[in-house]
């Protein structure tokens, strides 16, 4: 059987997971795999030690598709486990199709599926829309060739990301090496001229103007300005006095990935939400890049973990931030560390550039093969 286009419903059988109840989850048996266990956001593993229908058992190599809350396609490699509801296990029993090719094809189509989701509290794609989704269906030999080409590019992307992670670990290791024995511990309240948070008002947003950034803009250890929220110059003038941002200031996330710092490195106007803390270090005793490293150090991160409050949404309050204590060596040693960070960051820029270029190549190939 061969045709140019095929519907997902004609490719395979999709077996939905079991609706395990809270009381089914224990500490022994086979792990129950939920969507958050696939996305890497799970910190609460659950296990089931009882009888179960064989069809919900998953093993290494099985292809899984989450169809509710967070759409995604995954190849399971965590050993024998049990599948929770809202996830399909793919049983390739209808046509000849390369598994890797199928995964790439579904991954490309996820954006289209997202436009067809239903539900107010939990977005999901209904089975008939999923089954009706079409993917290109070339001969098996061509499928394998396409998958191999994409695998090669994806391998380079993963290697670039690994290099970036290693460079970040190098910086953290250097901090511990230089300052792990420093006993001059001082609280942030004594090291900063200002410790406050972003605006608590709900400004009127517009399509262009001065960027208004969120916690998600604190990435790669600096501030990014990619946002669809902007404010007028008048609104900025009214609100900026609370947070007079300058180069060298530190922003710190207080919810979500709380405790993640970013250094302001550009001289530009912007405002930010109240879930971001603003720290202005005293430049005569604290180097900004040293302070950034100190906030990421194991000792400081432990303090942050101890100080977050809340159950549904863990939050790092300003009063607790002020109590955080960091080692404060001489400015000369701080500068030595900052110089080291700058040198490593140059390497990171080069790796990031290569990563971005490879990602563009990957995206263009996906468009070519499945668009």
TrEMBL record:
One of its GO terms (biological process) is DNA restriction-modification system. It holds the Pfam family Methylase_S. GO terms for molecular function: DNA binding. The lineage of its organism: Bacteria, Bacillati, Bacillota, Clostridia, Lachnospirales. Keywords: DNA-binding, Restriction system. CDD domains: RMtype1_S_FclI-TRD1-CR1_like (cd17254), RMtype1_S_SonII-TRD2-CR2_like (cd17246). Residues 5-163, 186-354 form the Type I restriction modification DNA specificity domain. This is Type I restriction enzyme EcoEI specificity protein. It comes from the Bacteria. Belongs to the type-I restriction system S methylase family.
């Amino acid at each position: 059987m061969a045709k140019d286009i095929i519907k997902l419903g004609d490719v395979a059988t999709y077996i939905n997971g079991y609706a395990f109840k809270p009381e089914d989850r224990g500490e022994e048996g086979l792990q129950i795999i939920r969507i958050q266990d696939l996305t890497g956001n799970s910190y609460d593993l659950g296990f089931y030690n009882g009888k179960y229908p064989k069809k919900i058992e998953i093993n290494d190599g099985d292809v899984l598709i989450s169809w509710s809350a967070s759409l995604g396609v995954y190849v399971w490699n965590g050993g024998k486990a049990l599948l929770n509801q809202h996830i399909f296990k793919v049983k390739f029993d209808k046509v000849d199709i390369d598994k890797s090719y199928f995964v790439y094809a579904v991954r490309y189509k996820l954006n289209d599926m997202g436009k067809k989701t239903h539900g107010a509290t939990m977005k999901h794609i209904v089975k008939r829309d999923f089954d009706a989704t079409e993917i290109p269906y070339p001969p098996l030999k061509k499928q394998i060739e396409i998958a191999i080409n994409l695998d090669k590019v994806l391998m380079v992307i993963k290697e670039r990301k690994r290099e970036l992670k290693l460079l970040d670990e190098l910086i953290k290791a250097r901090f511990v090496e230089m300052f792990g024995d420093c006993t001059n511990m001082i609280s942030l309240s004594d090291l900063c001229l200002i410790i406050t948070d972003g605006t608590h008002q709900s400004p009127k947003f517009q399509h262009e103007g001065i960027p208004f950034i969120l916690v998600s803009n604190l990435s790669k250890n600096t501030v990014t300005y990619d946002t669809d929220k902007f404010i007028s110059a008048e609104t900025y003038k009214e609100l900026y006095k609370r947070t007079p941002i300058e180069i060298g200031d530190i922003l710190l996330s207080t919810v979500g990935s709380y405790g993640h710092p970013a250094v302001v490195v550009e001289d530009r106007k912007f405002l930010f939400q109240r879930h971001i803390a603003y720290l202005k270090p005293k430049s005569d005793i604290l180097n900004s890049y040293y302070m950034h490293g100190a906030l990421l150090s194991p000792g400081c991160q432990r303090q942050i973990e101890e100080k977050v409050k809340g159950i549904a949404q863990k939050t790092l309050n300003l009063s607790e931030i002020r109590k955080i204590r960091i080692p404060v060596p001489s400015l000369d040693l701080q500068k030595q560390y900052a110089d080291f960070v700058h040198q490593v960051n140059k390497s990171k820029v080069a790796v990031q550039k290569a990563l971005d270029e490879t990602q563009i190549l990957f995206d263009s190939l996906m468009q070519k093969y499945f668009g």
